[in-house]
From TrEMBL:
HAMAP family for this protein: G6PD (MF_00966)
Protein name in the entry: Glucose-6-phosphate 1-dehydrogenase
Catalytic activity: D-glucose 6-phosphate + NADP(+) = 6-phospho-D-glucono-1,5-lactone + NADPH + H(+)
Gene source species: Olea europaea subsp. europaea
Keywords: Carbohydrate metabolism, Glucose metabolism, NADP, Oxidoreductase
Similarity comment: Belongs to the glucose-6-phosphate dehydrogenase family.
Amino acid sequence: MNSFSSNSLLPSFPQLSNGLSSHPKITISAIPRAAVTEDLITLTAYSRHVLSGSSKNLCSKFCGLKLWLLENLYFQWPNIKHERKNEFKILQIDGKDDLLDNSKASHERQVFQGSPASISSNDYIGAKESSSYPEGNSTYGQPSNASRVNVVAECPSYSSAQHAETSAPNFQFDKSTKIGTSLTSPPSFRQTQSFSSNYQDGRSNSLSIAVIGATGELARRKIFPALFALYYSGFLPENVSIFGYSRKKMTDDELRSMIASTLTCRIDQQQNCEDKMDDFLRRTYYLNGGYDNREGMSKLSARMEQMEGEFGANRMFYLSVPQEALLDVSSSLADNAQSQKGWTRIIIEKPFGFDSQSSHQLTHALLSKIEEKQLYRIDHLLGRNTIENLTVLRFSNLVFMPLWNRNYIRNVQVILSEDLSMQIQSRYPNGYGIIGDIVHSHVFQTIALLAMEPPVTLDGEDVRNEKVKLLRSIRKLEPSDVILGQCTPTPGGKGDTKLEKATPTFFAAALYIDNARWDGVPFLIKVGRGLSKHRVEIRIQFRDVPGNLFRRHIQHNINLSTNELILHDVPDEAILVRVNNKIPGLGIHLDASELNLLYKDKYNVEVPDSYEQLLHDVIDGDNHLFMRSDEVAAAWNVLSPVLHELDNENLVPEQYELGGRGPDEAIYLWAKHGVRWLDD
Ligand SMILES: NC(=O)C1=CN([C@@H]2O[C@H](COP(=O)(O)OP(=O)(O)OC[C@H]3O[C@@H](n4cnc5c(N)ncnc54)[C@H](OP(=O)(O)O)[C@@H]3O)[C@@H](O)[C@H]2O)C=CC1
Ligand SMILES: O=C1O[C@H](COP(=O)(O)O)[C@@H](O)[C@H](O)[C@H]1O
């Protein structure tokens, strides 16, 4: 499901019954070359994979894995199954053994340095595999000499996980802390997330999921349906309970009928749909938190405990409440409803503050009660295949890897335009409108994933480390390189609520990344609501072919002179590459054609909603698509000159017509940066 898990490439491992369940975890730090099949070498050499397996029976699988590996050291290659992730990892580490000296050395992971002579931490697999990162660092194309393959099997350790995610951090919000300084080093990112805490003594931990703000629009429209879809597909543990919480008085049955009206089964999930819905609803309860969230959260915790029983218990809270309520809810939760017997993970909704200062305050307040690794800042737009495809395309295709830099890429465009079918004003009662809603998280995360250096592994913290470096390399946006717009309300029609003057519903900008890879390449952003077209796409335009033999045929035709890679999300998911070819007939005439991978033609499945994808990631402990505090701060920092000018009314959004193209100024902005406006 998640491209970061590389599921489709995995060999299946035999289920073993074994007596090793008392081992909290097993890490095997290297496999001798001779003992590994060529296929495995290829797999591990050319990719950095998180191998997956079913979340059920995890202990029985992996506590036996070491024995089995020692006995066999042979993977049944052709028998590939789709399995879940994070139970088993292969890490490829260039040059040095990170596992033995791992700054992220999780308490969840203990390195097995035991005796078996066949397992030596000094076994290297030769140079062949290390050429898998031709774009690494600044010397694009230079492979390193040797890499090591490490196999890490993680077996559950309830106590370590509890320590890892539930203990209160030492960090306290110091009121004297200077507001506005960037949060470059949040308290601790040492923990590698894993699903390993889901089993204790061979029993699966229970999972309690609480939707705080259960009666709200988002909960009804997106969160409960996504939870049901996960439940249907078997991605929630058997002993899951779901709690709706808000201040309204409501019974369990009333909540159930409210949710029932929004549940549907996907086309590929029709079997037993009604039964599954009934099962799901039976596990759903309502809790009226009243007007004192401290009391409410204590009641919720007590209710959860009744369902959880005596074994390990994980808790996930989705805070789908208005911003004004966020701090009270999160602090009451942190004090009164964290799990004492497993992990507690907390999802918060955007906007993540409104500017550097408010975001800094919010982060500090949150981190005074909750650890960074417990926090999942969700932007559901990041749960799309298109976003995951950025990394898959980049890091698993040699046709793109060497080209991914300023030498070959002329510009990058990120376009997200919504038409009149989407709500406009009601989402923007105050704050900076589309800047906090979409630009700060969605657009900056897209650019970070597209432009970051290759992460050491696909582990969430490794990816986040690279994203934050990239975000910090983005030059602060000059107000002169930004066009803001606000759609003009039509009386009685869409958008008839008057917005505050400084609330943009359109944002276009040219930004630059000041690093060796991207120096001088414009990244163009266009994001708007109430426009003529609904489209979400990322376009990467390549430079002219040097000394092109066909220049006489190409002349000034930009389509012919520019190869393009396009990732379409809306209206149709697709990956397109524009290349030149000869038109059939006598003589040579060139055509620019699109090699088109249209998802709906190739994959006959209904695509899971992005909330489903991201909730699955949270349960899995995979945080690579969720912004860490330092990423949040770095992104606001880039935007701060623009926000400052907005505050001072030196920058006023230009009015544009509903259903139009947005402010014309945007076209001139792109021309100023040498880019032709390609959409519309
Ligand atoms: N709707 C959307 O499409 C999107 C929403 N978001 C974000 O998600 C969050 C929720 O949005 P949305 O569902 O639209 O908002 P709604 O106003 O529709 O719902 C808010 C919910 O929170 C509850 N609530 C309000 N105050 C408190 C409180 N003090 N304690 C406990 N519960 C409270 C409300 O119920 P009650 O009054 O009974 O307590 C209600 O259930 C917001 O932060 C929003 O910015 C982000 C992206 C998209
Ligand atoms: O997060 C958001 O997304 C919606 C668009 O999401 P969609 O998946 O329903 O198309 C956007 O309209 C909203 O402003 C934003 O907050």
